[in-house]
Automatic annotation (TrEMBL):
Pathway: Pyrimidine metabolism; UMP biosynthesis via de novo pathway; orotate from (S)-dihydroorotate (quinone route): step 1/1. The keyword Transmembrane applies. This is Dihydroorotate dehydrogenase (quinone), mitochondrial. Residues 420-441, 453-551, 602-626 are annotated as: Disordered. The chain crosses the membrane at residues 65-82. Residues 425-435 have a biased composition (Pro residues). It catalyses: (S)-dihydroorotate + a quinone = orotate + a quinol. Pfam families: DHO_dh (PF01180). Its cofactor is FMN. It comes from Lithohypha guttulata. PANTHER family: DIHYDROOROTATE DEHYDROGENASE (QUINONE), MITOCHONDRIAL, DIHYDROOROTATE DEHYDROGENASE (QUINONE), MITOCHONDRIAL-RELATED. It is an enzyme of class 1 (oxidoreductase). Residues 495-508, 522-551, 602-612 have a biased composition (Basic and acidic residues).
Amino acid sequence: MFTVSRVAARAAAVGASTPRPVSARAAQPFLASRANQYFRPIKQYQRNASSQSMAAAAGTRVRNFFYGTTLVLGLGVIYFYVTDTRASIHRWVVIPALRWAYKDPEEAHEVGNRALERLWTFGLYPRERGDPDQTADLAVEVFGQILRNPIGTSAGIDKHADIPDPLLAIGPAIIEIGGTTPQPQSGNDKPRVFRLSSQNALINRYGLNSEGADHIAQRLRHRVRHFAEACGFGHDAQGETLVLDGHAGVPPGSLTPGKLLAVNIAKNKATPEHDIEAVRKDYLYCAERLAPYADILVVNVSSPNTPGLRGLQKQESLTKILSSVVTAARSVQRTTKPAVMVKVSPDEDSEDQVNGICQAIWESDVDGIIVGNTTNRRPEPLPHLRNLTPMEEQHMLEAGGFSGPHLFEKTVSMVKKYKKLLGDSPPPSNNPSPPSRSSGAVNEIAQEVKDNLAGSPAGNAVQDSVQTGAIPPKNVAEKKDAEKQPLINLPTNKFYDKPRSEQDKLRSSPDGAESQQPPTAEQEKMRISQEESAAKQDRSTGEVKKSPDLARRDRPKVIFATGGITNGKQALEVLNAGASVAMVYTALVYGGVGTISRIKDEMRKELTNGREKKNKKRKKAKANVE
C-alpha cells in the first residue's frame, strides 16, 4: 500500500512537469511578456544611441557655424585693415618686403604699381576710410575748384596713367601723371634708379621713359568712357562729350569731386634743344592730345635727365613754348579749359634766372608754376638719419636727379622767391605790346566811351537825337536782366548732385542714358561758336583774345611746391610760404600708400595745437588785463 501510494505520487509529479499542449491565443500573452522581458534592454540601448548621434550632429553644426562665422569676421577685419591706408602694415611690412624682394628700385616700383592696378580691378585696393576730408578743414581753392585738401603726388609715380584712380583713392587732391613725350621712348639705360635708404632718398636718371602721348591719351579716353557708361551716358563719343562738358558734375580729368588730374608733358630726347620750333611742336603735340582729359597741363622744362631740357628755361624760348601750350589748352572743345602750369628746377635759383622764368610766365599767361624737381647737386647727409653705407656712397657718385628730405629748405626758399614775383600784378614789361593789343590801350578806349556816354544825359536823349539826327548809344551795363545772357550755360542736371539712391537707379536702369538728354545740334553749334570766339588767335602776333571767364594776365599765379616734403609740419610750412598745394614723391616711395593720410593727420594735429596755443595766449592776455 505504501509502495503503491509512493509510485502514484511520483507519477502525479511527473505528469505535472510534462508540458501540455496549448492554443495560439493562449500562448500570445506569454510570448509578449517574455519578449518585453528579454528585448527591453536592446530597445533602450538603441534609443540612447540615436539621441547621442543627434546631439553629436547638433554639436558639429554649432562648431561649424562658429568656425565659419569666425573665419568670415576674421577675413572681414583683415580686409578692412589691409585696405585702410592708415594700417601700419603698409609702411612697416609692405615697403620693407618690396625692398628686400626686389633689389632694383625700378622693378619694385613697377611691381607695386601692377599690384595696385590688380587690387583696383577686384575692389581690394587701399583707400582712405572714414572720409576725413568731409569736414573741409583742409579745403583750398585752386583754379576756381574747391579741393578737399592741399596735398598732391608728383609726376613719376604713375608715368603711364596706369593707376590714376588707385592714387586718388589714397587721399591726395591732385595727382600728376607722366612725364609724357610726343613719341614713345625708352629713356636711359638700366640700372637708372638707386636707393639711399639710410637717408630716405633716391637718385634716378629715368630719362623720361614714356609710352607716347597717343597711347596715354587713348588710355585716358577709355577711362572717361568707362565712367560715362557707369553714369548712364553710354560708352561712346557722345557719352565722353557729356562727361567732359561737366554733365556728370565732376572735373573732366580726375572724375572725382574735389580733386584734379594733372598731366606732365615734355619733349622727346631726340628733338634738338637748340631748334626751338621743333621743341615747341613737341609740347604742342602733347597738349593737343592730352588736354581734353586733363584738369591741369604741366610743361616740364626741369628734368635733369634729358639733355638740354633745362636750357629751355631761358625767357625767350620758354615764352614761346608756354604760349603754344596755352593756346592749345584754351582751344580744347570742352566747356571748361585745363589750366597750364610750368615745372621749374630748384637748381636755376639765381636772381636773373628766377626773374626770367617769371617774366615768361607773365607774358605767356600760364596759370601757375610748380616749384621744384630733382636736383643735380648732392646735399650733405642729414645728421638725424643713419650714415650712408659703403654701397650708398657709391650710389652718390651716380649721375641723375637727387630727391629726398634734404631738399625741403631749398623748396621753401624757392617758393618764397616765386611768391614774391608771382603773387601780385605783373611787373612792368621792358618790351610793351603794340598799343592796339595792350591792356592800357583797352582801358583808354573804355574810358573814352565812358566819357562820351557821360556827356549825353539820359534825360536829353530824345532832344539830342532830334537836333543832331544821331541816336545816343545805350550803355551796355544798363541792360535789363531779361536781356542779359550768360557766357556759358552750365549744366543744371548733374549726375553727382542727385541722391545716392537715384544714382544707383540710373546706373542699373537700362534707359539710364535717356534720363540725361544730350545737347541738341543747335546747342552744340552755339557752344562751339562760343569756344571759337573765346579762343580767336591773331596769326601775326600769336596772341589770344580771351573771354572773361578765362585767366587774366594780371591775376596772381598759383604755386605748387614739391621737393623734400615728408610730414604734416613741413607741408604746413611750405603752404604758409606761399604755395597752394604741397606735392610728395620720395616720401610716398618710402612711406607707402598711407603717407598722404599720415601727412594730413599731422597737419590737422598741428593746426589744432596752434589754435590751442593761441587760445591760451588770448586767455592769459585777458587775465593780465583784468
